[in-house]
Amino acid sequence: MAGSRSSVRTWNFMASHQERLVVCLLFYLRLTLVHSQRGSYVLDDQKGLGRQFDGIGGLSGGGATSRLLVNYPEPYRGQILDYLFKPNFGASLDILKVEIGGDAQTTDGTEPSHKHTEEDENYFRGYEWWLMKEAKKRNPKIKLIGLPWAFPGWVGRGKNWPYTFPDVTAYYVVSWIIGAKQYHDLDIDYIGIWNERSFDIKYIKVLRQTLDKVGLTSVGIIAADGDWSISKTMLFDPYFNDAVQIIGVHYPGTYTVEDAIKTNKTLWSSEDYSTFNDNVGGGCWARILNQNYVNGLMTSTISWNLVASYYEDLPFGRDGLMTAQEPWSGNYVVESPIWITAHTTQFTEPGWFYLQTVGHLQSGGSYVALTDGLGNLTVIIETMTRNHSVCIRPPLPAYNVSAQTATFSLKGSFTNLTELQVWHSRFDFKTNNPVFFEQLTPIKLSEGTFTINLQEDEVYTLTTLQTGLKGNHSKPPDSQPFPKKYMDDFKVRNPQFSEAPYFADQTGVFEYFINTSDPGDHVFTLRQVLIQRPVTWVADADQTISVIGDYKWQNITVSSDVYMEAVNKGGVFIAGRVTKGGGEVRNAKGVFFWVFPNGTYKVSNDIQGHIVLAVGKSGTRAGIWHTLSLQIKGYEASGFLNGYPLWKNLRILGPKNGWAAIGTEKFEKAQFDNFYLGAD
């Protein structure tokens, strides 16, 4: 027995010893493996340079994505603009692309046209003019782009198509460019065709001829803001090829096509990102900013959108470089994409050149290098893992990234560099303790070589420039929900903007209006002005509607004075618990209280008026003011006309929550005044 116990002890000792050896061996192998994750890379300009860098940009519009920004009080509005445009402060954007308002729904709302009708002309509608001027004020070098998503109905001459009369469409677009200069001293650098819709060869040629005819030869055409298919057509039509300066594509997944390269044209990702701006969204942005050039030779990437400044419950909430969706509180959030942008924009300029020596890292990730040709060098490295850099589109194939050591050897004109400034961002998804755009100790070069240890989900900028700065304004106010009581009498004699605060038009255009024919209490009103369906980009509602308030509200009171201008047709409504906007607005549900000029009313559960809850006589007519009030509480709703109950305690089964809204039954002129919104 004793001998057996001794044998067991000996065996246990031996087993334990062997286990230790195995563990040590595995640890050694791991260290060897990690140590072997080394890559060597050369940065060299001796054999020439790559393509010219054109800058990083943001897109306002497509649509109404900056709607709430204009309603921010100072100093917060100016601070937001600084983070976007001020050089060496935040994103320091090189390009601002804006929607040419076309009176139609273009994703999160409508933006007004400068020409509602062919005879009409107003270059102060909307807020894109203001935004371009604010961008130029901060960065006079910023490039400006205009692109239509939709067109006023008159452009289509009765058809939902802008190319039937190409000279009319070209005239409309060129008038916007001329107006930008004449009324705002803004020089538009590039113009687009029709966002993400079919291109038309004849129209593009006519547009180029029209631009040249009026002296706008310096304005370049970007086409076609969709896929790469235009490039094949350009190869077989030299006149068409000459008309297009830049091939702009959307969401290319960082890859180009052979036909596009064969054109020898500048290639841009003219709309990209469109991803929720949490840190995974920041990782998406970091990856594509590098790899759009490494994989696709695209020399500019433009984010949709510039700033998420629209109600978050509209489509694609928070898909911007930063978030500014609470003008009533002043709160805004500087999200990670701002600082990821700074890794490139603060240490380059449009006109710099990529080196030919760019590429992928051995253990995943990518690097690009750019120079001004005067001895300056900027290197941007990203090691974003797949699951931490997924963009909204297109699908991202699987790939691996691991910790690694990278050694870079500088050749050519960079051989004698001895030091590089270092800026670093670490997403740190494991502990959720990220660090963005942090300046580190400069890295020393030995005989033109430096080595850097790279972990997963990091971004580095190494540069000769010493101008970088992580700008900082004082902390904005805390987040607050939409006020539970809100009133607007629209008494603004000289409004800076054509839209009333917080109203987000989803179909139609609602503008401040001076009603000179009314000597009484309704001189200053809000007016729906469209009388013709636009050439649409998505399926706009057949009714006009503008939403406001907190989407989470359930028990609300909505009241407004209303004035129907059209006799014997159409009608107006106020509504609560409205569920949808954007491209789905025609399917909006809610509680809609309608009155009509034929002396009737209706209550419906949908904007189309098909789900009818009640109908009756109202005595309403056009040409006089009426006061409508809607009260919704729990499963019941009541409607009042001129202070008297018109219908009471109507049973409603849904929806449970949503925005308040005003609108019209058709594209017709109607006015609203003394708007009130209250929530329990």
Walk me through this protein's architecture.
- The protein has about 675 residues and is an alpha+beta fold.
- It is built from eleven helices and 36 strands.
- The strands form six sheets. Strands 2, 13, 14, 15, 16, 18, 19 and 21 form an eight-stranded antiparallel sheet that branches.
- The N and C termini lie far apart (about 85 Å).
- Residues about 1-35 have low confidence and may be disordered.
Task: Record keyword descriptors for this entry.
680 residues, alpha+beta, 8-stranded parallel β-barrel, 36 strands, disordered N terminus, EC 3.2.1.46
Oligomer: single chain
Strand content: 25-35%
Tell the overall outline.
Answer: globular
Structural class: alpha+beta
Distance between the termini: 84 Å
Summary?
This protein is α+β, with helices and mostly antiparallel strands.
Strand and helix map with partners:
Layout: H1 2-36, E1 38-43, E2 49-52, E3 55-60, H2 76-85, E4 95-100, H3 128-138, E5 143-148, H4 153-156, H5 166-184, E6 190-191, H6 201-213, E7 220-226, H7 229-235, H8 238-243, E8 246-250, H9 258-262, E9 266-273, H10 279-294, E10 300-304, E11 323-326, E12 331-333, H11 336-345, E13 353-355, E14 359-360, E15 366-371, E16 377-382, E17 404-410, E18 419-426, E19 435-444, E20 449-454, E21 458-463, E22 485-488, E23 504-507, E24 510-514, E25 524-528, E26 544-548, E27 556-564, E28 572-578, E29 589-595, E30 600-606, E31 612-617, E32 625-633, E33 636-641, E34 644-651, E35 659-664, E36 670-679
Parallel strand pairs: 1-17, 3-4, 3-10, 4-5, 5-6, 6-7, 7-8, 8-9, 9-10
Antiparallel strand pairs: 2-13, 11-12, 13-15, 14-15, 15-16, 16-21, 17-20, 18-19, 18-21, 22-36, 23-26, 24-25, 25-36, 26-35, 27-32, 27-36, 28-29, 28-35, 29-30, 30-31, 32-33, 33-34
Helix pairs in contact: 2-3, 5-6, 10-11
